[in-house]
Structures are given as structure tokens and as C-alpha cells.
Amino acid sequence: MEVDIQVVLKKMEQELSSAKEASNETERKIHLSALKVLAEVLLTENEGKKAAVPEDLTWEKMTGSRPPQIQKEKSEKMDFEDGANGDSLFDF
């Protein structure tokens, strides 16, 4: 079943407006959660129809700067005096 993008976008605008006018934090969170779900619907609905935008490009468009590069640390086993050097907490 295809979702009409204009209908979803209109509903997103309504939820955003309701979130702005919310009288308390709980009510605001409810509207923002609905907004998040609607955005996810559009993203998954259109996923197969067009090529996915690389995450780096999306980050750059949103923030105007390059995304931070996450470096994977090489984990080295620590050698303890008592011989406990397992990968699990339960290795004695």
C-alpha cells in the first residue's frame, strides 16, 4: 500500500504545530514521537523508489559541517597478575 506523501507531510505539519503549542513536556513528547513515526514511514516507503542518500551527505546538509569521524579502537587484552584475562566477566 502506497502512502500519499502530501497527506503524510500535512499530518507532520499538524503534529509539529501541536508540539510547538504544547502546554507541557509530556504533551510535546507525544507530538514529537508522532512526527518521528511519520518521518520513518516516509523514509521506509520511499526507500525502494530512489537511491539512499549517504549518511555523510545528509549530516553535512543538516549541520553545514563534515560529520565527525569515529575511529575504531583496537582492543588489546589486558594482562592481570592473577591470570584473569578472559573476554567475559565470568572467565576466572
From TrEMBL:
Pfam families linked: DUF5327
Chain residue ranges for the region called Disordered: 62-92
Residue ranges, compositional bias (Basic and acidic residues): 71-80
Protein name, as recorded: YwdI family protein
